[in-house]
Amino acid sequence: RSSDLAWLRENFDHIYMEEHVRICHFRNHYELTRKNLMVRNLKRLRRSLEKDSGKMEAAKCDFFPMTFELPFEYHIFVEDFRKNPGVTWIMKPVARSQARGIFLFR
User: CA neighbours within 13 Å on the CB side: how many for 89?
Assistant: First the structure.
């Protein structure tokens, strides 16, 4: 559909763009480019596949690690944290890039 993809110029800083420059952009791109939103969508896909096609089909979504979005899934995280003592966890802050704010803990 033409509404899914647009060549934009209006919403970007014109000072650094020549007149002929356009940017390929699609609506709601942040749903894929932000870690927390991408995982939320992958989990939604898994639930949908499990409901519509069964556990075998949903298992195809098992390519990403166990992920928790805090503070929303804090109680689920604590439960898994207690079940797996000694496991190293990675904390990635929302809306940060280039490894800023990432740390490991046990």
Answer: 17
The size of the chain, in residues, is 106
Residue 37: closest CA among 69, 60, 64, 80: 69
Asked whether 61 and 42 are in contact (CB, 8 A), the reply is yes
Which token pair is 3? 């509404």
d(C-alpha 43, C-alpha 37), whole Å: 10
| pLDDT 10s digits, 41-87 | 999 999 999 999 999 999 988 888 888 988 899 999 999 999 999 99
Q: How far apart are alpha carbons 59 and 77 in whole angstroms?
A: 21
55: phi then psi, degrees, rounded to nearest 5: -65, -35
Contact 49, 28 (CB under 8 A): no
